[in-house]
Design brief:
The chain has 23 helices and 21 strands. By secondary structure, the protein is of the alpha/beta class. A hairpin with a 2-residue loop joins strand 8 and strand 9. The longest helix is centred in the C-terminal third of the chain and has 24 residues.
Length: 623
């Protein structure tokens, strides 16, 4: 038995003594036959336990959870102290109609000349069509939802013939899309669109219910044990605004991975480089938006699953405060780290979709006491003043711990531009106990996922799962009840550290990911992939390169999930290979308005550098 470690109370931690230490993870990289063999071994009762115990020891999980005295009491779900009201915002009514909230969000947006964009009179580099572009085209009779639907259906037929399969959607019904589009077209002909979102094409991740489509979680069987009878709450709110749902988007099976690899249906490819991953687990939602086929998509985010693929695909992804959106009707509706969030090509479209879907569940309103939802009033002259007052926290050693300096240099350049152009202030911060935060997250999300899946896996369905999912579950089964409680004690400590930081800054700024889109190994397409860093320890998503463990996809992601904080990924440029780089903005609890305001400013600074993805469809004009 090693010597026990005793942590001082969180409020006694000496920040001047905190030293940043880059993570090193020890685990194998496996694909194909070697992965299959490993799964059979790790699932074996005796030797499997020995392997997982060894891995946990080598990666200090046992030391942190079982050999450490943690003085704090457990925090079993995020609990937030009262927050100050955000300046220059417009309040939204949670109990009001979604279309009314969307109308208020529309009034928060700055002036936009859709006519010039349509005729091409506006000099600009590549840009995605915005929701307001679609609305202008529909209202001006330059296009109809039915016309756009046919172009979308043609693109899906093209994708269905790809070899090997690389589907954006794993549940798609052309006639259902035509039916929704025809109803929307009729509303425009009658002059009665339901909202600015009427006729807008939206994809739904396959772990969120969207009737009549099944919710499989990208498995081959989950819909058989959990039939879909109605829309998830968030989907229902969008449907009331006139949205056209195109189907269920591909994803990493059950959300238990961050690459987007899926050997059941085929792995979605990155629109900027089809030989690379999209990131995950919301791979299909990010890729379908980046390809121009949908204005927006809904994803879930329990470990960066909205922000990672948004960053790797060059789009915007919002992870809301835990409890801000109602999770009812999703496969991950009983956890403490997950949210449903929007992905779109630009910040204003994220705002419009967010306005529609927000609204806490009755239980969360009682337990979390959410602050009233609001949006930044970007159309107000006071907005620039509010922007200039923002204090941006940067933990430099952490910020610079990336696989390629292209990432830290690009993100750092944007921070400098925010200071120079808008008057923001950058403040150096220190975030203690980052390794403990990662351990607390993997124990939390792993235990909660296992709890939801175990009743169904006991029926023999576990052998139908992909090999990397089964590797994850083998690790999760090794967690004990005391491990889970210890993780929640760590959660309280880490919440304290972050709430102290937010007394000094308004937003924490990091790169979204520590690397750009990784290459898809050909051997991973049929049987999946795990290097244990990639999959089994998916909360420590690493890529093995030349035998060295380097920058990972989840390095900067975890705090927003474990602590329930709002965060957004905004594209800010490209690396030397032309792959997108994302900047992450993390706000205090219920601080969506502040990060959206800052994200809009970041987006404006980067507008001229936007590149058209290699895989792109103009379904509005049909070019």
């Amino acid at each position: 038995m090693g010597k026990k470690r005793v942590m001082v109370p969180a409020n006694e931690v000496d920040l001047t003594a905190v030293k940043y230490e880059p993570e090193t993870i020890q685990a194998p990289h496996l694909t194909g036959t070697s992965l299959k063999v490993f799964v059979n071994v790790v699932e074996a009762p005796l030797i499997g336990s020995m392997i997982t115990t060894s891995l946990k020891k080598k990666n200090n999980i046992i030391e942190m959870l079982q050999n450490t005295v943690i003085p704090e009491t457990p925090m079993f779900k995020p609990v937030f102290p009262p927050q100050d009201a955000e300046p220059c915002v417009v309040g939204l009514e949670e109990d009001g109609k979604p279309e009314d909230r969307v109308d208020l969000a529309l009034k928060c947006l700055p002036h936009f000349d859709a006519a010039s964009n349509w005729t091409g009179d506006s000099p600009t580099s590549f840009r995605y069509w915005k929701i307001r572009d679609y609305a202008y085209a529909y209202r001006s009779k330059l296009a109809t939802p039915s016309m756009v639907a046919e172009r979308f259906i043609s693109a899906m037929e093209e994708f269905s013939s790809k070899k090997p399969p690389a589907p954006l959607l794993i549940s798609f019904d052309a006639e259902e899309v035509r039916k929704q589009a025809a109803a929307s077209t009729q509303r425009f002909e009658e002059g009665n669109p339901l909202s600015i979102l009427d006729g807008i094409f939206v994809a739904i991740k396959d772990d969120i219910d969207c009737y009549p489509h099944p919710s499989k979680g990208a498995t081959t069987w989950y819909h058989e044990v959990r039939p879909v009878k109605k829309d998830a709450v968030s989907v229902s709110r969008l449907r009331g605004c006139g949205v056209i749902f195109v189907g269920k988007a591909n994803m990493h099976e059950l959300g238990l991975g961050t690459t987007g690899n899926n050997s059941n249906y085929g792995t979605t490819r990155n629109p900027h480089s089809p030989d690379r991953y999209t990131g995950g687990s919301s791979s299909g939602p990010a890729a379908i938006v980046a390809s121009g086929l949908c204005s927006a998509a809904l994803g879930t985010d329990g470990g960066g699953s909205v922000r990672i693929p948004s960053s790797l695909c060059g789009v915007v992804g919002l992870k809301t405060t835990y409890g801000r959106t109602d999770m009812k009707g999703s496969l991950c509706d009983a956890g403490t780290v997950e949210i449903i969030g929007p992905i779109a090509s630009n910040v204003e479209d994220v705002m419009l979709v967010y306005a529609a879907i927000l609204g806490s569940s009755p239980c969360d309103r009682i337990s979390l006491k959410p602050a009233p939802p609001c949006l930044p009033n970007l159309s107000s002259h006071e907005s620039s003043n509010a922007l200039g007052l923002l204090r941006l926290g940067k933990y430099t050693e952490w910020f610079n711990d990336v696989f390629s300096t292209d990432i830290s240099e690009t993100c750092g350049k944007i921070l400098n531009m925010l200071v120079e152009k808008h008057g923001c202030e950058t403040i150096e911060i220190v975030i203690p106990e980052l390794p403990e935060m990662r351990v607390a997250h993997i124990i939390s999300i792993g235990s909660e996922s296992l709890c939801s899946l175990t009743p169904h896996c006991e029926d023999g369905n576990d052998v139908k799962l992909t090999y990397d999912t089964r590797t994850n579950l083998a690790l999760f089964r090794s967690f004990t009840a005391s491990d889970y409680v210890a993780a929640q004690r760590l959660r309280r400590r880490i919440m304290y550290h972050h709430m102290e930081i937010f007394k000094k800054v308004d937003v924490i700024v990091t790169p979204t990911t520590g690397m750009t889109a990784p290459i898809i190994p050909l051997s991973a397409l049929k049987s999946g992939e795990t290097n244990m860093q990639v999959s089994a320890l998916f909360s420590w998503k690493y890529l093995c390169a030349s035998g060295l463990v380097s920058g990972n996809l989840m390095r900067f992601i975890i705090a927003a999930n474990l602590l329930g904080l709002p965060a957004i990924s905004v594209p800010v440029g490209y690396d030397k290979q032309g792959l997108p780089i994302g900047l992450q903005l993390i706000g205090p609890p219920w601080g969506e308005a502040s990060i959206l305001r800052l994200a809009a400013a970041v987006e404006e600074l980067c507008a001229d550098s936007k590149k058209k993805p290699l895989q792109f469809y103009d379904i509005l004009k049909g070019n």
